[in-house]
Protein backbone atom coordinates (compact mmCIF):
# COMPACT_ATOMS: atom_id res chain seq x y z
CA UNK A 1 0.00 0.00 0.00
CA UNK A 2 1.32 3.43 -0.95
CA UNK A 3 1.71 6.01 1.81
CA UNK A 4 -0.98 8.21 0.26
CA UNK A 5 -3.39 5.28 0.30
CA UNK A 6 -2.44 4.38 3.87
CA UNK A 7 -2.98 7.96 5.05
CA UNK A 8 -6.48 7.96 3.61
CA UNK A 9 -7.29 4.59 5.18
CA UNK A 10 -5.93 5.56 8.60
CA UNK A 11 -7.71 8.92 8.57
CA UNK A 12 -10.98 7.15 7.81
CA UNK A 13 -10.32 4.68 10.62
CA UNK A 14 -9.75 7.42 13.20
CA UNK A 15 -12.81 9.43 12.15
CA UNK A 16 -15.02 6.33 12.30
CA UNK A 17 -13.63 5.17 15.67
CA UNK A 18 -13.39 8.18 18.01
CA UNK A 19 -12.01 7.66 21.51
CA UNK A 20 -10.88 4.15 20.59
CA UNK A 21 -7.36 3.31 21.76
CA UNK A 22 -5.53 1.33 19.05
CA UNK A 23 -2.00 0.02 19.34
CA UNK A 24 0.74 0.72 16.81
CA UNK A 25 1.19 -3.03 16.13
CA UNK A 26 -2.47 -3.08 15.06
CA UNK A 27 -1.74 -0.57 12.29
CA UNK A 28 1.56 -2.26 11.43
CA UNK A 29 -0.24 -5.54 10.80
CA UNK A 30 -3.33 -4.02 9.20
CA UNK A 31 -1.41 -1.96 6.64
CA UNK A 32 1.72 -4.14 6.38
CA UNK A 33 4.05 -1.24 7.13
CA UNK A 34 7.02 -0.57 9.37
CA UNK A 35 6.37 0.85 12.84
CA UNK A 36 8.44 3.94 12.00
CA UNK A 37 6.30 4.58 8.91
CA UNK A 38 3.07 4.24 10.91
CA UNK A 39 4.42 6.70 13.50
CA UNK A 40 5.19 9.21 10.76
CA UNK A 41 1.71 8.73 9.29
CA UNK A 42 0.13 9.40 12.68
CA UNK A 43 2.10 12.66 13.00
CA UNK A 44 0.93 13.77 9.54
CA UNK A 45 -2.72 12.98 10.30
CA UNK A 46 -2.52 14.66 13.71
CA UNK A 47 -1.10 17.85 12.20
CA UNK A 48 -3.87 17.94 9.60
CA UNK A 49 -6.62 17.34 12.19
CA UNK A 50 -5.29 20.28 14.20
CA UNK A 51 -5.10 22.54 11.15
CA UNK A 52 -8.66 21.63 10.19
CA UNK A 53 -9.85 22.33 13.75
CA UNK A 54 -11.53 18.93 14.18
CA UNK A 55 -9.51 17.45 17.04
CA UNK A 56 -6.24 15.64 17.56
CA UNK A 57 -4.64 12.23 17.98
CA UNK A 58 -3.66 11.40 21.54
CA UNK A 59 -0.80 8.97 22.11
CA UNK A 60 -0.66 6.81 25.23
CA UNK A 61 2.77 5.40 26.08
CA UNK A 62 3.50 1.95 27.47
CA UNK A 63 2.82 -1.65 26.59
CA UNK A 64 -0.93 -1.14 26.87
CA UNK A 65 -0.81 2.19 25.06
CA UNK A 66 -1.57 3.30 21.55
CA UNK A 67 -3.22 6.20 19.79
CA UNK A 68 -6.80 7.48 19.82
CA UNK A 69 -8.70 10.23 18.05
CA UNK A 70 -10.12 12.91 20.37
CA UNK A 71 -12.78 14.88 18.44
CA UNK A 72 -12.91 18.61 18.95
CA UNK A 73 -14.16 21.55 16.91
CA UNK A 74 -12.55 24.97 16.92
CA UNK A 75 -14.69 27.92 18.03
CA UNK A 76 -14.32 29.37 14.53
CA UNK A 77 -15.74 26.23 12.91
CA UNK A 78 -18.53 26.04 15.49
CA UNK A 79 -19.45 29.68 14.93
CA UNK A 80 -19.61 29.14 11.17
CA UNK A 81 -22.02 26.21 11.62
CA UNK A 82 -24.28 28.08 14.04
CA UNK A 83 -24.30 31.25 11.91
CA UNK A 84 -25.48 29.14 8.98
CA UNK A 85 -28.29 27.70 11.15
CA UNK A 86 -29.36 31.17 12.25
CA UNK A 87 -29.65 32.27 8.63
CA UNK A 88 -32.08 29.43 7.97
CA UNK A 89 -34.05 29.96 11.17
CA UNK A 90 -34.63 33.68 10.54
CA UNK A 91 -36.65 32.86 7.43
CA UNK A 92 -40.12 34.31 8.14
CA UNK A 93 -41.81 31.39 6.37
CA UNK A 94 -40.93 29.27 9.41
CA UNK A 95 -43.38 31.13 11.67
CA UNK A 96 -46.23 28.90 12.82
CA UNK A 97 -49.51 29.92 14.52
CA UNK A 98 -48.97 30.72 18.19
CA UNK A 99 -45.48 32.11 17.68
CA UNK A 100 -43.75 28.78 17.16
CA UNK A 101 -40.90 28.26 14.71
CA UNK A 102 -40.72 25.29 12.34
CA UNK A 103 -37.42 23.41 12.90
CA UNK A 104 -38.26 19.82 11.98
CA UNK A 105 -36.58 20.03 8.57
CA UNK A 106 -33.26 20.98 10.18
CA UNK A 107 -33.57 18.27 12.84
CA UNK A 108 -34.28 15.75 10.10
CA UNK A 109 -31.45 16.75 7.79
CA UNK A 110 -28.34 14.52 8.24
CA UNK A 111 -25.84 17.27 7.41
CA UNK A 112 -27.27 19.83 9.84
CA UNK A 113 -27.70 17.27 12.61
CA UNK A 114 -24.17 15.97 12.10
CA UNK A 115 -22.74 19.48 12.32
CA UNK A 116 -24.75 20.25 15.46
CA UNK A 117 -23.47 17.03 17.00
CA UNK A 118 -19.87 18.11 16.37
CA UNK A 119 -20.47 21.48 18.01
CA UNK A 120 -22.11 19.91 21.05
CA UNK A 121 -19.32 17.36 21.39
CA UNK A 122 -16.73 20.12 21.37
CA UNK A 123 -18.67 22.16 23.94
CA UNK A 124 -18.13 19.66 26.75
CA UNK A 125 -15.26 17.82 28.35
CA UNK A 126 -16.39 14.37 27.28
CA UNK A 127 -13.30 12.48 28.43
CA UNK A 128 -15.27 10.53 31.04
CA UNK A 129 -18.81 10.59 29.61
CA UNK A 130 -20.56 7.21 29.53
CA UNK A 131 -23.95 8.07 27.99
CA UNK A 132 -25.79 10.75 26.03
CA UNK A 133 -29.27 11.16 27.53
CA UNK A 134 -32.28 12.74 25.82
CA UNK A 135 -36.05 12.63 25.96
CA UNK A 136 -38.28 11.48 23.10
CA UNK A 137 -38.73 12.68 20.45
CA UNK A 138 -37.07 15.65 18.74
CA UNK A 139 -33.90 15.46 20.80
CA UNK A 140 -33.15 11.92 19.57
CA UNK A 141 -31.32 12.80 16.32
CA UNK A 142 -29.19 15.36 18.16
CA UNK A 143 -28.29 12.85 20.86
CA UNK A 144 -27.21 10.27 18.28
CA UNK A 145 -25.14 12.87 16.45
CA UNK A 146 -23.25 13.75 19.64
CA UNK A 147 -22.86 10.08 20.55
CA UNK A 148 -21.43 9.31 17.12
CA UNK A 149 -18.73 11.92 17.54
CA UNK A 150 -17.57 10.89 21.01
CA UNK A 151 -18.33 7.17 20.75
CA UNK A 152 -20.77 6.48 23.60
CA UNK A 153 -24.32 4.99 23.76
CA UNK A 154 -27.57 6.95 23.65
CA UNK A 155 -30.22 6.59 26.36
CA UNK A 156 -33.75 7.74 25.48
CA UNK A 157 -36.18 8.77 28.20
CA UNK A 158 -39.81 8.20 27.20
CA UNK A 159 -43.19 9.54 28.25
CA UNK A 160 -44.75 6.08 28.54
CA UNK A 161 -43.26 2.70 29.48
CA UNK A 162 -42.55 0.18 26.72
CA UNK A 163 -43.11 -3.52 27.34
CA UNK A 164 -39.88 -4.29 25.45
CA UNK A 165 -37.78 -2.38 27.99
CA UNK A 166 -38.67 -4.39 31.09
CA UNK A 167 -38.83 -2.79 34.53
CA UNK A 168 -38.73 1.00 34.54
CA UNK A 169 -38.19 3.93 36.87
CA UNK A 170 -40.67 6.79 36.50
CA UNK A 171 -40.93 10.29 37.92
CA UNK A 172 -43.45 13.11 37.72
CA UNK A 173 -42.32 16.60 36.83
CA UNK A 174 -43.84 20.00 36.16
CA UNK A 175 -43.68 21.14 32.55
CA UNK A 176 -42.32 24.67 32.47
CA UNK A 177 -44.52 25.88 29.64
CA UNK A 178 -47.90 24.29 30.43
CA UNK A 179 -47.42 23.92 34.20
CA UNK A 180 -48.90 20.44 33.90
CA UNK A 181 -47.76 17.40 35.81
CA UNK A 182 -46.16 15.00 33.33
CA UNK A 183 -44.37 11.68 33.56
CA UNK A 184 -41.10 10.37 32.16
CA UNK A 185 -39.81 6.80 32.40
CA UNK A 186 -36.56 4.95 31.81
CA UNK A 187 -35.70 1.26 31.84
CA UNK A 188 -33.81 0.20 34.97
CA UNK A 189 -31.03 -1.43 32.96
CA UNK A 190 -30.41 1.67 30.83
CA UNK A 191 -27.81 3.39 33.02
CA UNK A 192 -25.32 1.97 35.48
CA UNK A 193 -24.86 3.43 38.94
CA UNK A 194 -22.32 6.29 39.13
CA UNK A 195 -22.33 6.70 35.33
CA UNK A 196 -21.47 10.10 33.84
CA UNK A 197 -24.04 11.50 31.42
CA UNK A 198 -24.55 14.43 29.07
CA UNK A 199 -28.14 15.63 28.66
CA UNK A 200 -29.01 16.85 25.15
CA UNK A 201 -32.31 18.36 23.99
CA UNK A 202 -33.58 20.38 21.06
CA UNK A 203 -35.36 23.26 22.84
CA UNK A 204 -35.65 24.81 26.28
CA UNK A 205 -38.02 27.46 27.52
CA UNK A 206 -38.34 27.36 31.31
CA UNK A 207 -36.36 24.14 31.66
CA UNK A 208 -39.02 21.98 33.29
CA UNK A 209 -38.35 18.98 31.06
CA UNK A 210 -34.60 19.15 31.56
CA UNK A 211 -35.08 19.49 35.32
CA UNK A 212 -37.19 16.35 35.11
CA UNK A 213 -34.35 14.52 33.35
CA UNK A 214 -31.93 15.65 36.04
CA UNK A 215 -34.28 14.31 38.73
CA UNK A 216 -34.56 11.01 36.88
CA UNK A 217 -30.76 10.76 36.70
CA UNK A 218 -30.70 11.22 40.48
CA UNK A 219 -32.89 8.13 40.77
CA UNK A 220 -30.21 6.19 38.87
CA UNK A 221 -27.43 7.77 40.97
CA UNK A 222 -25.88 9.05 37.75
CA UNK A 223 -23.71 12.16 37.46
CA UNK A 224 -24.90 14.87 35.08
CA UNK A 225 -21.69 16.24 33.57
CA UNK A 226 -23.31 18.71 31.22
CA UNK A 227 -26.55 19.95 29.64
CA UNK A 228 -26.78 21.06 26.03
CA UNK A 229 -29.78 22.52 24.19
CA UNK A 230 -29.87 23.44 20.53
CA UNK A 231 -32.17 26.43 21.09
CA UNK A 232 -33.28 28.33 24.16
CA UNK A 233 -36.14 30.80 24.29
CA UNK A 234 -35.73 34.37 25.48
CA UNK A 235 -38.52 34.56 28.04
CA UNK A 236 -38.25 37.16 30.78
CA UNK A 237 -41.69 36.36 32.19
CA UNK A 238 -40.85 32.88 33.44
CA UNK A 239 -38.09 31.87 35.83
CA UNK A 240 -35.72 29.32 34.36
CA UNK A 241 -35.43 26.10 36.35
CA UNK A 242 -32.01 25.22 34.91
CA UNK A 243 -29.05 27.59 35.10
CA UNK A 244 -25.97 25.56 34.23
CA UNK A 245 -26.36 24.66 30.55
CA UNK A 246 -24.96 25.36 27.10
CA UNK A 247 -27.11 26.61 24.21
CA UNK A 248 -26.10 26.99 20.58
CA UNK A 249 -28.78 29.45 19.50
CA UNK A 250 -31.20 31.80 21.25
CA UNK A 251 -34.68 32.58 19.93
CA UNK A 252 -34.95 36.27 20.83
CA UNK A 253 -38.24 37.22 19.18
CA UNK A 254 -40.94 35.74 16.97
CA UNK A 255 -43.28 38.45 15.66
CA UNK A 256 -46.31 36.94 13.96
CA UNK A 257 -47.79 40.30 13.05
CA UNK A 258 -44.72 41.64 11.29
CA UNK A 259 -43.54 38.21 10.18
CA UNK A 260 -40.03 38.48 11.60
CA UNK A 261 -37.80 36.11 13.56
CA UNK A 262 -34.79 37.28 15.52
CA UNK A 263 -32.19 34.65 16.43
CA UNK A 264 -28.83 35.08 18.12
CA UNK A 265 -25.92 32.82 18.99
CA UNK A 266 -26.34 30.92 22.25
CA UNK A 267 -24.33 31.18 25.46
CA UNK A 268 -21.69 28.73 24.17
CA UNK A 269 -20.16 31.68 22.34
CA UNK A 270 -20.20 34.05 25.32
CA UNK A 271 -16.91 32.82 26.76
Textual characterization of the structure:
- This protein is an alpha/beta fold and 271 residues long.
- It has 2 domains: 3-71, Winged helix-like DNA-binding domain superfamily/Winged helix DNA-binding domain (Arc Repressor Mutant, subunit A, Orthogonal Bundle), CATH 1.10.10; 75-269, Rossmann fold, CATH 3.40.50.2020.
- 35% of the residues lie in helices and 28% in strands.
- The chain has 8 helices and 12 strands.
- It has helices at 3-16, 24-31, 35-52, 75-89, 104-107, 110-123, 140-150, 208-219; strands spanning 55-60, 66-71, 95-96, 100-101, 131-135, 154-157, 168-174, 181-187, 196-204, 223-233, 246-255, 260-265.
- The strands form 4 sheets. Strands 6-5-9-10-11-12 form a 6-stranded mixed sheet, with helices on both faces. A two-stranded antiparallel sheet has the order 1-2. A two-stranded antiparallel ribbon has the order 3-4.
- α8 (208-219) links the parallel β9 (196-204) and β10.
- α1 packs across α3 (35-52) and α4 crosses α6 (110-123).
- The chain starts with a helix and ends in a 6-residue tail after the last strand.
List the helices and strands and how they pair.
Blueprint: H1 3-16, H2 24-31, H3 35-52, E1 55-60, E2 66-71, H4 75-89, E3 95-96, E4 100-101, H5 104-107, H6 110-123, E5 131-135, H7 140-150, E6 154-157, E7 168-174, E8 181-187, E9 196-204, H8 208-219, E10 223-233, E11 246-255, E12 260-265
Parallel strand pairs: 5-6, 5-9, 9-10, 10-11
Antiparallel strand pairs: 1-2, 3-4, 7-8, 11-12
Helix pairs in contact: 1-3, 4-6, 6-7
Subunit structure: Homodimer.
Protein name: Pur operon repressor
Domain Bacterial purine repressor N-terminal: 2-71
